[in-house]
Amino acid sequence: MGMSIQEQWKQVKNTVAEGLKNVEISLENQKYNNHYLNIANTFNKEMYHYFEDVSCKENSLTQCTQAMWYRLYLERKRLQNLGLRKIYNRVHFVQCKKDSHNKELVTIGYEDDGKNTMCEICDNSNAEENFFYVNDKNQKVKFFTGKKRKEYRIISSKFKTEKECACQNCGAFMSIEKLIDGCDYCGTKYTLQDLQGKVSSVYEKNNNTQTRTGSPILFIMLSAICFVFAFFLPIVSLLGFLFLIIAMVYIKNNGQKTTESMLKLKEQFQLLSKEGLFSEIENKVFTLHYCDEQKGRQALCECELGVDYKNVLLCETEKFFIEEVNFTPDNNWLSLKCRMHLRVTSLQQEQIVQEKEVVILKMKRSVESLRKINSDLLVYKCKNCGSSISLLNGGICEYCGSKILLENFDWKVTEYQSNWKK
Prior knowledge:
Elements: H1 5-52, H2 66-81, E1 84-90, E2 106-113, E3 116-135, E4 140-157, E5 164-166, E6 173-175, E7 191-192, E8 198-204, H3 217-229, H4 236-268, H5 274-290, H6 294-300, E9 312-327, E10 333-348, E11 351-366, H7 367-371, E12 377-378, E13 380-381, E14 388-389, E15 412-418
Helix pairs in contact: 2-5, 3-4
């Protein structure tokens, strides 16, 4: 027996309602996607201007986290000390479009990242981007160009934060972004946690590496070559299988270690942000590369580096692994062992070269500092003179020179190994 008119009408209404709901969800998703794409593009525009214009103010970078800002600040300062500037001749902005095969060139994903919501934008358009360094005489020193696939990570705190606030010391009212390098009026230093919609890291994927889990691309390529020549020399196919097995073991050992380490940390610290953690560790390593003051390096680590980074111009992460997570028997301290594969650009005998570096480091931090649910706006005071202290430079007071115990509030390097030339 067929459906009655009432049942048919009800089915039509349900179908139309479901279709409208899907359209509404699609429009809402597109709204979020456009919002985060705008953040990435605004960050690019601000960064290009920040490096090209030496008169550009330090707090002009408004679309990145404080850790990312400090990294760029030190990079620009190092270039200025060496009499160089970075000029972008061709820049690229992320756009949602499809290739000739109707495949999306930009993919956008979202993840609950503990304290934050993380947006990952993968730009696979292979757009050409180039920049060059110039000296004080406006002479080109080196030119970099190439088609790049970029990956942006943008984090937004799940806790509501105001766009503007009053300085806790002098009461001046300003946007939170303006506090990234301290209050413009009284100089009070603030530690800004993950705020709303800020770029925390940018990676170039044109080197065929995966920054967080590693990529066995070399072994896979060798396997493919061996299989091609196996038609002429069958024994070569055995080498192909061997390289393929090595690649599989590489993925399992390195990717699994990082995954297991993060699960172990999440069991103890539910609000721990994975992206925030990676960004903090990267910031420490990059600061050690860019910092010109011995006192600043000593504040960040309790060991000797044994390497000289005074001519480093640029650091980029290719691979990142967390290999060990350990708690002390009294459960008061946490230590991490990490391994980072970097691409380092440096100035050598008036020539700019790019080289690979592998850094293995151990870090420690108090468990109590990780268990606290901190607000997004913090001020640390010097116990000696009462001035505000920034954790970015290792917690050194700019007025009296006193230092706080960094490991009570942030990560401190305890061991450092590098294959960089001594």
